[in-house]
Each structure stands twice: as structure tokens, then as C-alpha cells.
Amino acid sequence: MFDWYFWNDEGKEAGWNRRMILDAWTMPDRPAQPASRRNDGPFTEKDQFLYDPGDRKWASNLREIINWQFSDLSADSPFRYHSVRSLGYLLYSICHVQNRLRCKFTASMFEQLMVLMRIKSQDDMQRALSVNLVDYGFVDDSIQFIPAAERYQVNAQLAKLGLDENQNLINRNASSYTAKISSSQSDQIPTATQYMGEEAKVTQLVGAGLAQAYEYQKPEYLEIFRRFTRKHSTDPEVLRMQTNCLKAGVPPEVLYNLASWEIEPERIIGSGNRTLEMMTSDWLINHLSLYSPDAQEKIKRLATLSMTDDSALADVLVPEQQTASNSILDAESSAASLLLALPTTLKLNVNHGEYCAVLLSILETEIVKIASAGGVPESPAVLLGLQNLSGLTVDGKRVPGNNVAGHLELFEQAA
Fold first, then answer.
1. Among residues of the chain, what percentage have pLDDT more than 90?
2. DSSP designation for 51
3. 163-192 mean pLDDT
4. DSSP 4
5. CB 97 within 8 A of CB 166
6. In 3D, which of 199, 203, 179 has the Cα closest to residue 279?
7. C-beta neighbour count of 255 within 10 angstroms
8. Same domain, 207 and 277
9. How confident is the prediction for the chain on average, in pLDDT?
10. Distance (Å, rounded) from C-alpha 200 to C-alpha 191?
11. 379, 378, 400: which is closest to 390 by C-alpha?
């Protein structure tokens, strides 16, 4: 089939439309015209496409359809930018010449191994073909073997020089992906800093290529995330992902808003160099005291993963510590103002479920304190604070503010 997209700016919305048609021209058992899905009538315009969603816009830009990944690691002029086949394209001619030269060289080698005989007539050729060269045999006088001195001699040194020169041309173009940096010139053992510098020089081209690959990968990750955050999707994987995010406390207004997210590819340490990765991890461990406690836990986990190369073992040795979310911390700090009956503003970009849980827990604690003291508040201000925290008065009237009732209403709307 032919599956293609075309830009359509007719109607209220412009975008890319999609169509599919049967490739009848390359199918010998099919007619040489588009096939119809109906057998009860002649071909009509409606049946010319195997897939025709009508005016449905498949994508708004090309990034939603296709994503390219380029490899730009050439350090030789001409600098071949955004072309993954240019190296092979430039090496094709020399590789073709090298292949022909090797074929001729091999043919000449077999020719040197042949036993040549000189004959004068067809009868001599028949006599030569009847010779049985065994341990004991007879050779006719008319058959003369050609010695090596009289045979054509191939200039082996010239052929080998041509092979080596072609190979050098191929190596010079193909080996430009890594820098050839010699080790320390002195006879002394290099220090850790010197060795790390030499390793960094060797991997600088690969590191530049990886950094460029990270930037090219962002549009693809962004498009994947856009598809996974579409509302009313019927894809099971998308539904599973959205459900897990909502259970984890991601607000719906944030989950379905692509502008609220920053997509960054996960980067590796050492630019793909295992030695440089271990040396970097070792340096971080040696300077662990310079970092904050939260950063120290991340460094320990990172160093363990770099040394063991086993993520499961790193999870066991350095388990990830559970920290309170911003919604929980904000609810705990807001509860003090609410209990003092101070006016507050309802916050929107938070996890309303977590917010409600924290405020209800604090409200329950205050009620337990009052019950243990006889069941009567010490002053009317305490009752006003409880009403302000819960969001409802004793008469059931709504109290505006950043309280339980407000967040509970938003949580029900999101659910």
C-alpha cells in the first residue's frame, strides 16, 4: 500500500491529512487500478482509498509525524552536517578500487600457482592433456614446461603499495570519530587528574556527538509525551500511564498541559567512557562532604550504579528516600494561618488530594485536643479557626479560603 500525508489548509483548521491506497501497480494478481471495497457496483470516488478519515487532521506539524536522528561526528573537511550516509558516499570510490585491486591481486596469485606448458600444435596439446603427473611418469619430447624465469612476473611490491595506500585513505576518513591522543610523554605514572584529562580528550568527539544526540532526541520525547497526555484517549498504555500519574498526585491541569512540562533526555556520565565514568564517580565520593545531605544521597546512588552497573543492586544498597511533596509542605504551613482564623486564598496548582489529607489530619488532631480538655473550646477564636480550617461553619455555610472544603471540591471535579 501507499501511505502518505499531505498538508490541507481548507476549512477552519489547517494540518496534515492522511490517506492509504492499494499499490496495484506492483501486485501482478491485482488489477491495474485502485481496488474497490464493494463488490456490488462499479468503482466510485468514495471507494478509491483503503483508508480515508475525511477532514480529520492527523497532525498539526511534521514533528507529530516523523522525527530524525542525525550523526555528525566528522572532524575532517568537508564537514558533513546532517548527513548519515556521506562518509560511505565519499569512501565508496576508494573502496571500489580497493576491491578491484584485491580481486586482481588474488587472480594473479592463482595464476602464479598454475603449471604452464609450451606446445606447438593441437596434437601437442592432446599429448599434454594425456600426461598423468604421478610419482613416476613419462613426458613427450614435444611438451616443454615454462620455468619461472620465463613467465610474466607481477610487481608484488607495487601491488602491495597500492593496497596499503588505499587502506590508509579508508582509515583516515573512517577513523575520524575518535581522537588519537597519546599518553603522558614522561616516564612517570600520570596522576589521576592527568589521566582523566587524557581520557576526556579521547572521548571529546563522542561526547560532542552524544550531546548533539540529546538535543535531537528532545522533539521525539516531546511528541511521545504529547500523545501520552491526550485527553479521552482509548489506547490502553496511555490510559495506564495517565492513571498512574493521577494516583501519584499529578494535578490534572498539569498532566494534560504540555507547556507545564520540561522534557530532558537522561544523560550518562563520562560521555560513554566507562573509565571516565568511574573516575568521575570516585571524585564525587571523595568530595561528598561539600554537598548538601540531599545531594549526598544522589551521589551515593550514582556512584553505586556506576561501579556495579546494576540498577537493581543500587536500589537495594542505596534505597531512594521518600520525601514530602510540595503540596504536603504547603498544607502544613497553611494550617497555622487557618487555625488563627486569618483569611487565605485557595491554591490551585497543587495536589488537592494530598492537601485535603493533611488539613483533615490537622483538624482531627485539634478536635482530639478539645475533646481531651472537656469538649469545649477555650475561646470563640478557637472555634473560628476550626471553621476556617474545615471550610464550613457550624450552620453548614461555606467559608471561603484555602481550606478542606475548597480543595475537596476541586479534587471531586478533577476525579
1. 4
2. B
3. 66
4. E
5. yes
6. 199
7. 19
8. yes
9. 78
10. 14
11. 400
